[in-house]
Amino acid sequence: MKLPTRHPWLVAAVGVFLAVALVLTSIWLVVRNDSGEGTPPPAGAPAATSPSTIPGTSLGASPRTVPATMTVKVYFHRGAADDPTKVVAVRRSVPSSSKVATAALTQLLAGPTAAERSAGYWSLFSSATAGMLRSVRVAESVGYADFRDLRPVIPSAGSSAGTAAFLAELDTTFKQFGNVRRTVYSLNGDVSAFYEWLQLSPPDGTMPTLAEAQRVARAFLTDVVGMRSLAFAGSRWRSDFIATVDFRTRVGENKTTPGPLSRVVLGKSKTSFNVYGVTTDTIRVDRPAAAITPSDLAVVASPLTISGEALAFEGAVNVRVVQVGNGTVRQLGVGHVTGGGDVMRPFTGQISFTTPSTDTGWVLATELSAYNGAITKVTAVRVAFSALGG
């Protein structure tokens, strides 16, 4: 609306009125968003907290930065331990994140602070379990949380009262989110290991599916092999107990060109999958020989002899010997062999590696991208180490 210019004082008055109204509205909205508990936000969605900035007003004020934090609730026990299922909420301020359930469980595993313990809060979780949460996801109202092996750290959770106290804190913290109706927990991806530890039966409906096989395969390629920019290329059952999952890397400047295919072979356990090996058509490893059962694994010692055929950029095949223990990947040795750069050609070589601390490990034969050095394909062979500690 155009105001008559012969009354400039009226224009100024209207402008000031509108500016004040906008400021008051902004303050009211911020206060309203920060007040009260309300319903906890669902997992995977940000909590209603103070924004990272409050916009400037029409009067020309600069944006005011405020701490980008959110509040999550975790549940501990307090006082006498006469009822192991009774827990109470403790509020924690954490950096803002869309992964609210992950933030809450991370805080839970850190255990009560010194001040909270002085106030009577107690828990089976402590600084010894901090950082042992591996992953959190929610699908179809079921919350899944995977942990590193908690058994050596909190053995008392395996007793009847310990189990009740342990699950009361976990379930109440996880189920505070409206989209989590049921929970399934695992240790290093093994659901049955978690519930056997607590002398319980695994939840119904936890038999593994191809979706679980895809998750385990992707985690292996990412965490153990070190591949990035993976594109899912398909999965299928090879038998009642064996599944394969295919991935390609994305290569090129824009990471849009599909790279070579790596096929992960997995065996179904009661509740998840175990990786048996990975193959790619242009790197074939004959020695050490691939096997499925632990009793048939090739036994290797340093220096390890590796042979086979390969077609790779300039014939170069990168070879690594790694071990995996408690969710941690440790590189024991690395070297190179040379196959063909134009066609498949034989390769052979020896890779020295340091003394392992696990019974088994992996030999990873990979090709590195000529563009950025990323791993583009892999053949992975599981092996047994001939001696530990010597």
Account of the 3D structure:
The chain is α+β, with helices and mostly antiparallel strands and 390 residues long. It has three domains: 8-65, no CATH class; 69-197, no CATH class; 210-385, no CATH class. The chain is built from six helices and 20 strands. The chain has helices at 8-34, 100-109, 114-118, 160-174, 191-197, 210-225; strands at residues 53-54, 64-65, 69-78, 88-95, 121-122, 133-139, 142-147, 182-187, 230-237, 242-251, 257-268, 273-279, 283-287, 298-300, 304-310, 316-325, 328-338, 345-351, 360-368, 375-385. Strands 9, 10, 11, 12, 14, 16, 17, 19 and 20 form a nine-stranded mixed beta sheet that branches. A hairpin with a 4-residue loop joins strand 9 (230-237) and strand 10. The termini are far apart.
